[in-house]
Write a structure and sequence with these properties.
Order of helices and strands: HHHHHHHHHHH
Strand content: under 5%
Structural class: mainly alpha
Largest sheet: none
Distance between the termini: 28 Å
Number of helices: 11
Number of strands: 0
Length: 225
């Protein structure tokens, strides 16, 4: 569904929304069967949360409340005060998609003041992580004994640090990392397809062409955009 929305695909969206709605309805039916709740309770809870969380829309507040402070208050209201005091990350689902989980962890940390003052600090941290990974990978590439082996634990660790730092840059730049990555992947895919089309038109076999040739075509595609 998210892909259909992102692509503005009104032809596919009704079907994808239907798939999502089926899953939501199925959960309600299961709850009704065990006499836990039904549709009225779901709608009432949605209305309650919308009103409480948006007093600048439904009340007299002049501006939107701080989201992290509000969520912390809700967790305390559910009796999680002692746990939250020890763990500011309590309640961040471990099963979240990794980019979104990284973002939520960073938002929680920022909520208790552990954050860069602006995006420049996060960018410098990203550069630091790139240098650290480059150092590890360069050393590995220079070692004949490493050929064909899976990445070492320290390479995996540093690659994770780099991605986490990149998420932080996105967050402080006001961009959701999943949105940024999807946009970047779509752009690469669009250009790569154009490279393939131009290569075919010029009689160039991509699999056997050297990188300089493909890079030249890539630059031509970028210029044409």
């Amino acid at each position: 569904m998210a892909e259909a929305v992102r692509r503005h695909d009104d032809g596919a969206l009704p079907g994808e929304l239907g798939d999502l709605l089926l899953n939501l309805a199925f959960q309600v039916v299961l709850a009704e069967e065990r006499r836990a709740f039904g549709v009225p309770e779901v709608v009432a809870e949605l209305e309650r949360k919308m009103i409480v969380r948006h007093p600048h829309v439904f009340g007299d507040a002049d501006e939107a409340p701080d989201w992290e402070s509000m969520k912390a208050g809700e967790r305390r209201g559910r009796g999680n005060r002692p746990h939250d005091a020890r763990d500011p990350l309590a309640g961040v689902p471990a099963g979240l998609e990794p980019l979104s989980r990284a973002l939520r962890v960073q938002e929680r940390a920022a909520g208790v003041g552990f954050d860069w003052p602006d995006v420049s600090g996060a960018i410098e941290k990203l550069r630091e992580e790139i240098d650290e990974l480059r150092s590890l990978v360069s050393g590995r590439a220079a070692s004949p004994s490493s050929a064909g082996l899976p990445p070492s634990a320290d390479v995996v660790d540093e690659a994770g640090d780099l991605l986490f730092a990149a998420v932080n840059v996105c967050r402080l730049a006001g961009v959701h990392p999943s949105t940024a990555l999807a946009t970047g992947t779509d752009k690469f895919a669009r250009r790569f397809r154009a490279v393939a089309e131009r290569s075919l038109a010029d009689g160039i076999e991509m699999a056997s062409a050297d990188l300089a040739t493909l890079d030249r075509i890539w630059d031509a595609v970028k210029r044409s955009e």
